[in-house]
Amino acid sequence: AQRVTQPEKLLSVFKGAPVELKCNYSYSGSPELFWYVQYSRQRLQLLLRHISRESIKGFTADLNKGETSFHLKKPFAQEEDSAMYYCAPGSYNTDKLIFGTGTRLQVFP
Amino acid sequence: NAGVTQTPKFRVLKTGQSMTLLCAQDMNHEYMYWYRQDPGMGLRLIHYSVGEGTTAKGEVPDGYNVSRLKKQNFLLGLESAAPSQTSVYFCASSPGGLSYEQYFGPGTRLTVT
After folding, report:
1. B42 touching A, CB under 8 A?
2. How far is A45 from chain B (nearest CA, A)?
3. Most buried among A11, A38, A70, B1, using CB within 10 Å?
4. Do residue A92 and residue B98 have CB atoms under 8 angstroms apart?
5. Residue B5 φ then ψ, to 5°
6. How far apart are CA A80 and CA A42, in angstroms?
7. Which residues of B touch A97 (CB under 8 A)?
């Protein structure tokens, strides 16, 4: 069965601290991996996707096939990073995404 | 461009009542999705459509029906609402399948008493 786990419901850090939001997945075949973000009073939106291998707003995510993880990282958190973050792997077998339960990131000044 | 819009924003139903949620997109996207979001559960796919006139079941389809008569609209129906359907419902659209970004609507908060 395809599964995704975000073990932390809440992650609190101070501004300038490094951030790592964890995501582990269980998929057959080669998954497509995304991180979506929802800022307060805004819609859920794409933050980054694995296939693009880009850094968005200072965030990066590396696929570790051995550990089946796709953790989201940022070296220096900013207050405006406070939001709900969802890991969303998908399989070409099903052509659909599965969303994790989300991690709320709070960045304190 | 309005993007993805959802109607209504809020609704309270009594058990057994029916209603239809409307999702509209003006981006000419082929794929459209209906999700529900419950505390501690993340987003779960209810139904989706890969093009006008097509629909398919997602992860939690029971108690819901959908229609995609026009490419820009995707309707989600509850024939006989139950308290277990109290949730926030999100619609999304994308130009294609898995590898494409999904664009989300603002959500509809539904309470069934």
Report:
1. yes
2. 7
3. A70
4. yes
5. -120, 150
6. 13
7. 45, 98, 102
Residue A11 near residue A106, CB atoms below 8 Å: yes
Residue B50 has pLDDT above 90, yes or no: yes
Strands A96-97 and B4-7: unpaired
φ, ψ at A58 (rounded to 5°)? 85, -5
**Contact flag B104-A100 (C-beta cutoff 8 Å):** no
Contact yes or no for B105 and A43 at CB 8 A? yes
Q: How far apart are CA B25 and CA B45, in angstroms?
A: 18
Per-residue tokens: B58: 């997602």
Report how far residue A84's alpha carbon sits from residue B30's, in angstroms, rounded to the nearest whole number.
27
Give CA–CA dist B35/A41, Å, rounded. Answer: 18
**Helices (DSSP H) in chain A: which residue ranges?**
none
Mutation pick from B43, B44, B48 vs chain A, by most beta carbons of A within 10 Å, is B43
Could you give the CA distance from residue A47 to residue A60 in angstroms, rounded to a whole number? 10
Tokens of B88: 């926030």
**B79-112 confidence digits (pLDDT tens):** 999 999 999 999 999 999 888 999 999 999 999 9
